Amino acid sequence: MGVPVISTAMNGACEIMTEGVHGFVLQDPRDVESLRKRYRAMMDDSARRAMSMACVQLRGKLSQDQHVDRLIEVYRSLV
Hints:
Helices cover 58% and strands 10% of the residues. It is mostly helical. The longest helix has 15 residues, at 64-78.
């Protein structure tokens, strides 16, 4: 945690992260030019530090307790 990522829109990470805040989301994982631009953007120390701090703030949303609480809510809504 605390590490900005380059992810794709084809997995669950993009549901939690915000483009340009916690890292980057590629719409097409085959788009090499877009990937290259994102890698270059990650090389900026101040931008990467800001993204890293934003990632740390996501910890509460990603905790096991949060996950279990959400599952229980879903199960209760089905009963």
